[in-house]
Amino acid sequence: MFWEKIYFIVLVLLFVRLSTEFSVQVPADHGTCENWTLAAEANAGNCTKTGKRLHCFGGMANLHLMNIQKIKKIEQVILCGWPNTTFEPHSVLKHFPKIRILRIEHSNLTHIFNDFPDANYLESINISWTQFGYTRPTLFKRLHNLKYLDLRWNKLDHMEGPLILPRSFEQILLAGNPWNCTRNLKWLLSEKGAHVADRENLTCADYKYTGRHLLTVMQFKLNLKTECQNHPDLRNCSCTMHYIRRSDDGKSLTPIYAVNCSHLNLFNFPSYLPQNTSIFHATHNQIAEVRSLRDNSVYRQVYDVYLDNNRVQSIDVLEAGFWLNNFRVLSLKGNKLTRLPVYALDSALERNAHAARLYLSLNPWICDCKFTMKFRELLMKYHTIIRDSHNITCKYIEGDENFMTEVLTLERNDVCKLPKESKILPLDLLNGVLASLIVLILGKLAYDYYHYRKSGRLPWIVTKLP
């Protein structure tokens, strides 16, 4: 019994030693191939074999000259300066049935053709400092013993989704890549992203979120998606993050959102918007009034509102209100506006230092003497804000010569015309009356003369004269 215990202990110690010797070691650095061009083998693209390790520089030109049986026992392959822009896993790994570690570093590799084939012993893959810019979920699917994956310092800007990896997988490293945070990388927040050991260090490199922590950006996006999906007024709207603003003290970040509810046949503004929404699109709907901008507090911080091609007939309700005095962009093209509160709008634009763009074209503007000249003065005064002022024209009124005329080109005489003079003057009317009386008198005289000659009796009025 005693020797059996000793034998068992020896076996355990031997197993531990072997496990330690052949366990996958996380590379201490990523500079194994940093100066590979200085190696003598680099001139011909040859490989050097040391024990069970094969170190190649600029290719594998001399691989066919090596002993096949020894090559089959290779467990670690390091490819420095891979000469091609593409890599076909099967054509390389077929030479190394016992391979456990594969490293491809400092090369112009951009694409991996086909998924990695079955490799029962392959536990660690390091593809770093290359131009590798695209990976797919199934790329490493058939590597059932893969435990470690290092994809740092490449050109990956997005991933279609989490990689399909074996249950025994331990960790993946992704830092140093130019991540495009405008793409969907929210899976990194979930359990599927738990294997990404350095996900806290991933940063964005796109035009919109450069320098921001990727997880922070994705968390803001996830919060917005949840908030929009949970409110009935926004379920059919599109909610996006416009940008991220740093606080004045630099200690916190605030996401700025944009909500798009266009082409939804809406008759009213949504009653709710996510906090920090500053841009609202509701074009091509049936909205007829803008009272919500005045009465609903959720629109108080919505500075850009786009309401093109709706049925808005008036913005008088915004007069002297907070929103009109603080807006940045208001687009009302293609609505039913015929008049504006000119003086109120003038006063608001004077006080509003944030006003940048106001669009008013494609509305049926009435061009009359009372409104048009004041409107024209407003367009001229704020032409840098009213960007489409040259496209603002008069609506069609039968007999009006100003139809489709630019309001800016109208003069007072064009809209303030005096009534046309009557063709019949008072003197002409008097002359007509007098002429009629003369004709009547002459007619009466001729009748009396005829009657006297025929009957010999004088006219009745003559007999009454004294």
Automatic annotation (TrEMBL):
Gene Ontology biological-process entries: monoatomic ion transmembrane transport
PROSITE patterns xrefs: LRR (PS51450)
Transmembrane helix found in the keyword field: yes
UniProt keyword terms in alphabetical order: Cell membrane, Disulfide bond, Ion channel, Ion transport, Membrane, Signal, Transmembrane, Transmembrane helix, Transport
Chief location category: membrane
Annotated InterPro entries: KCNMA1_auxiliary, Leu-rich_rpt, LRR_dom_sf
GO cellular component, one term: plasma membrane
Signal peptide limits: 1-21
Topological relation to the membrane, as annotated: Single-pass membrane protein
Subcellular localization, as worded in the UniProt entry: Cell membrane
Domain of life: Eukaryota
PANTHER family: ELRR (EXTRACELLULAR LEUCINE-RICH REPEAT) ONLY, GH08155P
Protein name: Protein singed wings 2
Lineage: Eukaryota, Metazoa, Ecdysozoa, Arthropoda, Hexapoda
